Amino acid sequence: MEKGIELNGKIYPCTVSLAMDLVGGKWKTVILYHLKDSEKRYNELKKEITNITEMTLSLQLKQLEGDGLISRNVYGNKPPIKVIYRLTEFGKTFIPALEAINNWGHQIVEEKLNLSTNTIK
């Protein structure tokens, strides 16, 4: 019987569980998607992800940084400071999964729109 996978003091039943611990939830993957092509400031992310609260965005950014998926670089030492978020090299390894999820989302939209159109006729 397999014991599971231990990483950073946590035991996961499988690698999917491990991966979902890093990127699961409603917002982490969305944040990573918005950082995949370029670095962003906090306010840029907030404008692009309109439904996320400031508290949730801050919390998710801290978790993603803690897990090594994004980096947070602070420029300046007195207000207004400039903070830039970007994918780390580890975070960039998730880009193929992000693109697959994005493509699947487009496929779902197309199928649902076709179903709606066919139903209306």
Strand and helix layout:
Elements (H helix, E strand, L loop, with lengths): L4 E3 L2 E3 L2 H9 L4 H8 L4 E2 H7 L5 H13 L3 E6 L6 E6 L1 H4 L2 H26 L1
Strand order of the largest sheet: 3-5-4
* Multimerization status: single chain
Top-tier CATH class = Mainly Alpha
C-alpha geometry: globular
The percent range for helix content is 55-70%
CATH-defined architecture:
Orthogonal Bundle
Radius of gyration: 18 Å
Determine the CATH topology.
Arc Repressor Mutant, subunit A
Q: What is the N-to-C succession of helices and strands? A: EEHHEHHEEHH
Task: Offer a concise description of the structure.
Helix content is 55%, strand content 17%.
Give an overview in words.
The chain is of the alpha+beta class. It has a single domain (26-120), classed as Arc Repressor Mutant, subunit A, CATH 1.10.10.10. The chain contains 6 helices and 5 strands. The strands form 2 sheets. It has a 3-stranded antiparallel β-sheet with strand order 3-5-4. A two-stranded antiparallel sheet has the order 1-2. Strand 4 (70-75) and strand 5 form a beta hairpin. The model has no long low-confidence stretch (mean pLDDT 91).
